[in-house]
Write a structure and sequence with these properties.
The chain is mainly β. Helices cover 14% and strands 49% of the residues.
């Protein structure tokens, strides 16, 4: 009985290997330059040829600059939680492109709780981020605050950021929703 089972198993394994070796590459006769606009690599996506876009690009053909969906003025809903203390704020956030980069942005006022005094004037904290399919905060201290985390585009076009903010040795758990 064991020998029959082992023989059946070996035969099935051989048939499976033969079938997999006959599978065709859906990207075989395609070029990334055409399908992905020279902004990504071709990949097999469940039997269909698709694109894995370079940092800063998105869409089925990598034509869309992710930064275009970020740059502008946003309505802000944010929270900063430390232990049992919760600070909820609303306001506005501005996101601008950093120079000519397609992967770096400057975010002014990601969370209104973390304003700072700059020369006696209360200002919004500015942080920087890199775009790679999502927005990753770069963790450079701004006004004594270090933001660690990321934001992702939601199906409704808004952006949700989940992150920690470290200020004066305290770590706040934060969330910001940016909507138009």
């Amino acid at each position: 009985m064991k020998k029959q089972f082992l023989l059946i198993f070996v035969v099935m394994l051989g048939i499976s290997a033969l079938m997999n070796s006959c599978a065709t590459d859906p990207c075989k006769d395609k070029t990334a330059a055409v399908l992905c606009n020279d902004k990504g690599d071709l990949v097999d996506k469940n039997g269909t040829c698709g694109c894995n876009c370079d940092s800063g690009y998105e869409g089925t053909d990598c034509k869309t600059l992710t930064i275009t969906s970020l740059v502008g003025e946003w309505k802000l809903g944010s929270s900063a939680v430390l232990g049992t203390e919760s600070n909820v704020r609303t306001g506005k956030t501005t996101i601008t492109q950093e120079g000519t980069s397609v992967t770096k942005v400057k975010i002014t006022n990601l969370n209104q709780f973390f304003a700072c005094s700059n020369g006696g004037t209360l200002t919004d904290v500015i942080c920087y981020a890199n775009i790679n399919g999502e927005v990753v905060l770069d963790e450079t201290a701004q006004c004594g605050v270090v933001f660690k985390g990321k934001g992702s585009k939601q199906t409704d076009g808004s952006w949700k950021f989940v992150y920690t903010a470290i200020k004066d040795g305290k770590t706040y758990n934060c969330e910001s929703i940016l909507s138009k």
